[in-house]
Amino acid sequence: MEVDRFAHELESLVPEQALEAVLAASQSAHRCLTSSFQAEDMVVAHILRKRIPDVPVLFLDTGYHFPQTYEYRDRMIRQWSLNLVNLLPAQTVAEQEAAFGMLYRSEPTRCCQLRKVEPLMRALEPFDLWFTGLRREQSPTRKNLKKIELHRLPTGKTLWKVSLLADWTWEQVTQYVNANGIPSLPQYEEGYLSIGCEPCTALPADSDNPRSGRWGGTKLECGIHTFSTRAET
After folding, report:
1. pTM of the model
2. Helix/strand/coil (H, E, C) string of 15-47?
3. Is residue 173 exposed (0-12), middle (13-18) or buried (19+ Cβ within 10 Å)?
4. Residue 147 is part of which domain span?
5. Contact 19/48 with Cβ under 8 angstroms?
6. For 111-164, how does the pLDDT look when each residue is reduced to its tens digit (9 = 90+)?
């Protein structure tokens, strides 16, 4: 698969068509979806489960999520019979805080590395296709996102990273959610636009940048989408 050519072909396709093209090009691939259970991830899960009902749904259980996030996750797992894979860090919250203190305050990047990046990089090893809910509009750091990219993990393993909604706007996401009766995280009703760990999530400071409420405005990415690198094809 020549990634740049294929990415160009996918660009004009709606998500369902792009999914069919990706599956046709990688019929024996092991597939997974990473999900924080935000709206975009639920749209992708809704599309995927029609074709791959048992697709593993990888959730980074940092121990710091909002209680509402855990309740919503568990409810949607039951309602949709999702194949949840709960990814845990090497240390519990109590163990990490005893060893290092409140890293989310003092060293948020290190906290994300320990509780998100390292568990995910390990969990992705068996997979060939990695579906995400990423969109270009979400952040300046994602403006060049392609619908399919070849990524290399820290071990050297490569896999295809597929973002079916790369070109979607937030309005398109909400239209799909409403049209298909998909329940949403309750934090959206409180004005949150990007929802992660509770200590590092606030209302957005910039309405044009949904992720501006994350990490007190000190950074825009936790690292799970920047630690793996695009591989040359």
Report:
1. 0.88
2. HHHHHHHHHHHCCCCCEEEECCCCHHHHHHHHH
3. buried
4. 3-184
5. yes
6. 999 999 999 999 999 999 999 999 998 878 788 899 999 999 999 999 999 999
Q: Which positions are catalytic?
A: 222
Domain with residue 160: its CATH number is 3.40.50.620
**CB within 8 Å of 27: residues ≥ 6 apart:** none
Q: Domain tally for the chain?
A: 1
Has residue 207 been placed in a domain?
no
Report the distance separating Cα 204 and Cα 211, nearest Å.
Answer: 7
CA distance linking residue 122 with residue 26, whole number of Å:
22
Q: What is the pLDDT of residues 39-73, one digit of tens each?
A: 999 999 999 999 999 999 999 999 999 999 999 99
